[in-house]
Design a protein that fits this description.
The complex is a heterodimer.
Chain A (H helix, E strand, L loop, with lengths): L13 E11 L9 H8 L7 E4 L5 E5 L6 H22 L1 E4 L18 H10 L1 H5 L4 E7 L3 H10 L4 H8 L4 E2 L2 E2 L6 H6 L4 E2 L7 H14 L10 E2 L1 E4 L4 E8 L4 H19 L14 H11 L4 E3 L6 E3 H19 L2 H13 L2 H12 L2 H13 L10
Parallel strand pairs in A: 8-9
Antiparallel strand pairs in A: 1-3, 1-4, 1-5, 2-3, 5-11, 6-7, 10-11, 12-13
Helix pairs in contact in A: 1-2, 2-9, 6-10, 9-11, 9-12, 11-12, 13-14
Chain B lengths: L7 H28 L4 H11 L15 H20 L4 H5 L1 H24 L4 H11 L4 H11 L4 H33 L2 H7 L1 H24 L8 H17 L4 H14 L12 H17 L3 H6 L1 H21 L8 H10 L5 H11 L10 H24 L10
Helix pairs in contact in B: 1-2, 2-13, 2-18, 3-7, 3-11, 3-12, 3-13, 5-6, 5-8, 5-15, 6-8, 7-8, 7-18, 8-9, 8-16, 10-11, 10-12, 11-12, 15-16, 15-18, 16-18
Classes of the chains: A alpha+beta, B mainly alpha.
């Protein structure tokens, strides 16, 4: 089956998908609650879309198509409220965070759906270890060529999104020292990493995808676990490196930071992307995963060493006019605050120090998700 | 009977051997039973009953005396602690329909069993006692089946929470009735009150004290983030010891301990669920011991009424939970399955009865139908729980192929 044609979207429209944790409010461990949650949510109309994920302790929600931060945020708030009230009925806590801090992967149950069962059969324990939670952001593109241009131009900004969203410092009850340990699990998959460097959609379609298909390894774009991948049926590119943040407010802010950044890149604000940019790609990505906002990047063109936090702040200044035009200034403001006050990962580490247990981390994550104004001040 | 013709030395040797042998037999039986997907505890109960004093007579009539009462209470205490640890009290507030379900289910069970008992010719008092003792779902049976099958989901969660609720309701109802009876028969109000209200308050208070004190101590010792299984086991042993020595209820104390500890967010990590190997070991002892205390003549005497009682109880639980299932956020089907899963009775009841012996009342004689119901449910009800959880799709597939 050949790759479908690239659908045309309005430029810079956006949509967000969040993979969320379903946690038992009794013992704060993950709970196989997605069938029950879906049954209950199905009783009335949901303010967005909700689907199962590969294991029964995950649920995925997505927004409609938006153009402005305010609309996106409003819908995310509605989605959150619907999830929280369903969870309350079922003793299920819903929360963000890229990993659950103490779940045991061997306890997970694959959701009963053919594709999930196939993936599980192919990847073995990797599939159950894939009980990790990410945010995906779609940005609409007018053509396949525009999609590929944006996809590759974003390469040097990928670490920004990793560091800003990082919320997975703990795995199996231990501090990994990473800010985003989640991406290490993604990297275990053979078709992960970055997309091949082509800037023309026809080349991508005929040379790369068609050949890969002939190898028998892939049948659709879904088989690629790339950091950014084109989604031809939506006419979007999809950024997939973010951990699910602890609040929907941060999720909306990250999405609109990306939107403003894409606007700036489409405006030819920078020299065009090149294959050689990817020399230091994995290194920069590692820096962001390991050290978060305190990491150090190497600029792909000048090879200059840049503290990640300062690079974000400089980028915010550069794209300010674009954000203003798109109504995304509140998002940039949120990112600015976040760059100073620290990521969700450092918030979770503080919770561990204060409560003395991994259960305390999950409890704080649940309360953060419920609260509307970020998680600086938790309700009692 | 058998022992009359055997020399004293051999009798002493046999006494030493009896329990180890029965426990070994029960364990082997349990592992064989697993192959046919029979819950281990059903087999333990079967072996324990078969070896009991009035059956094969392998076990002594007293059930082994003081130290085994202590051990059994510790075994039950460990399970109740873990059980309490899984209860989120706030759920009853955020979903009031769940609390209503628990109340409805318990009241229906009480009423149904009372009517059946009266119909069967029991006195008002016996019928009231029977009705109160038929209310609770055995936390031990439920926890062991859930842990054995690694269950997770709504039916699992609801069985645990509703069982906690009906156990607490039972303790109150039972003590109220016993208190009332003590007053009626002795005319001494002081004794009546001390036999009920004080026992409840002090037992729960002891548990709460441990629930606050032990986590605080562990944090002081810098233990909070490590494995605290040994610490909790020792605390439970101590708590059970204190409760038995002062003649309070070790059951209520350990249950409260678990609930309070949970709300203090103290860690009991997953590898140690069910207290690991120690919990498995004590479960063998607990279930064989309890079944061994049941005497066949009593079972035979109360068999038909016992069966009727089981039927009424099951119907009440299934109907009671299913009636409010939609309102409380699950499907009719899962509601009915939750009711089915709540079938186990027994350990709780037996120990409650044992406890009243301290008061100089032997209720067991009055309650022959309960002995029959208990025996049957000890063996059959874990199967019902397992079936309910499997039909709800909440058991863990043994191995995905």
């Amino acid at each position: 089956m050949a790759l479908e044609a690239f659908a045309t979207s309005d430029s810079l429209t956006l949509g967000v998908e969040l993979e969320l944790q379903l946690v038992s409010l009794s013992d704060f461990d993950l709970v196989d609650a997605s069938p029950d949650m879906l049954e209950l949510l199905g009783r009335r109309s949901f303010p967005g879309n909700v689907v199962p994920e590969i294991t029964e302790s995950m649920i995925e929600v997505s927004t409609g198509i938006h153009t402005r931060h305010s609309g996106l945020l409003a819908q995310l708030h509605e989605i959150r409220d619907a999830l929280v009230s369903a969870g309350d009925m079922l003793n299920v806590g819903v929360c963000g965070g890229g990993t659950h801090p103490f779940q045991e992967w061997s306890q997970r149950k694959i959701f009963s759906k053919p594709r999930f069962k196939e993936v599980s059969a192919l990847y073995g324990y990797l599939a159950k270890q894939f009980t990790i939670f990410g945010q995906h952001v779609h940005i609409g593109c007018r053509s396949g060529d525009e999609a590929l241009f944006l996809l590759h131009s974003l390469n040097r900004y990928v670490p920004h999104f990793i560091a800003l969203s990082a919320s997975s410092p703990f795995v199996q009850r231990h501090d990994t020292l990473f800010n985003s340990a989640r991406l290490n699990s993604v990297f275990a998959f053979p078709l992960s990493g970055r997309a091949p460097f082509t800037l023309r959609w026809t080349d991508f379609e005929n040379d790369y995808f068609a050949q890969m298909e002939r190898t028998g390894v892939v049948t659709s774009m879904k088989d690629f676990y790339w950091d950014i991948r084109p989604k031809p049926e939506f006419g979007t590119i999809e950024l997939r490196v973010c951990d699910t943040p602890l609040t929907v407010d941060r999720a909306a802010a990250l999405a609109c930071y990306l939107q403003a950044l894409c606007s700036y890149l489409l405006d030819k604000g920078e020299p065009p992307p090149a294959e050689s940019d990817y020399l230091i790609y994995n290194y920069n990505r590692f820096q962001a995963c390991r050290f978060g906002l305190d990491g150090t990047l190497v600029h792909p063109k000048t090879y200059e060493a840049l503290p990640l936090r300062e690079d974000i702040l400089a980028t915010l200044r550069r794209i300010e006019p674009h954000a203003e035009a798109l109504g995304a200034s509140p998002a940039l403001n949120h990112v600015y605050q976040g760059a100073h006050s620290g990521s969700d990962a450092s918030f979770l580490r503080r919770q561990f120090d204060e409560s003395g247990s991994a259960e305390g981390i999950v409890d704080a994550a649940i309360r953060a998700f419920r609260s509307s104004r970020g998680h600086r001040r938790l309700p009692p | 009977v058998l022992t009359d013709s055997i020399p004293a030395a051999a009798v002493a040797a046999a006494a030493h051997l009896a329990w180890p042998l029965v426990v070994a037999l029960a364990w082997i039986g349990g592992e064989i039973g697993r192959r046919w997907r029979v819950p281990r505890i059903s087999v333990y109960a079967l072996v324990g009953f078969a070896c009991g004093a009035t059956q094969l007579g392998l076990l002594p009539a007293t059930g082994g005396g003081g130290s085994s009462v202590m051990l059994v209470n510790i075994a039950f205490g460990l399970i109740l602690f873990e059980f309490g640890y899984r209860v989120n009290l706030r759920w009853f507030v955020t979903n009031p329909w769940l609390a209503a379900t628990g109340l409805l289910e318990a009241l229906l069970t009480f009423a149904a069993v009372y009517l059946i008992a009266r119909w069967g010719g029991a006195s008002t008092l016996s019928a009231l006692l029977l009705a109160s003792l038929a209310m609770p779902t055995s936390p031990a049976s439920v926890m062991l089946v859930i842990n054995e099958q690694r269950c997770s989901g709504q039916v699992t969660e609801r069985i645990v929470h509703l069982a906690a609720m009906n156990c607490v309701l039972t303790v109150f109802a039972f003590n109220a009735i016993v208190g009332f009876w003590t007053f009626e028969t002795s005319g001494r109000l002081g004794l009546a009150i001390s036999s009920s209200a004080v026992v409840l308050v002090v037992s729960a208070g002891l548990g709460a004290l441990f629930g606050l004190g032990v986590p605080a101590l562990l944090r002081r010792l810098g233990h909070a983030s490590h494995d605290s299984t040994v610490a909790f086991t020792i605390a439970i042993v101590l708590l059970v010891g204190i409760a038995l020595a002062l003649r309070y209820s070790p059951l209520l104390a350990t249950l409260t301990f678990g609930i309070v500890a949970r709300h203090r967010r103290i860690t009991l990590n997953q590898a140690q669920r069910n207290f690991g190997a120690l919990g498995d070991l004590l479960a063998v002892l607990l279930f064989t011991y309890v079944a061994a205390t049941i005497e066949w003549p009593r079972v035979a005497a109360g068999l038909w009424l016992g069966l009727a009682l089981i039927g009424a109880r099951l119907a009440a639980k299934v109907l009671g939970v299913a009636a409010l299932s939609r309102a409380s956020g699950i499907s009719w089907r899962k509601g009915a399955l939750t009711g089915l899963g709540m079938m186990p009775i027994s350990v709780f009841v037996i120990l409650l009865l044992e406890h009243t012996r301290f008061l100089g009342i032997d209720l067991v004689d009055h309650l022959a139908p309960l002995a029959a119901a208990t025996l049957l449910l000890e063996i059959a009800a874990p199967l019902a729980t397992q079936l309910a959880l499997r039909l709800a799709g909440e058991t863990h597939e043994p191995r995905s192929s």
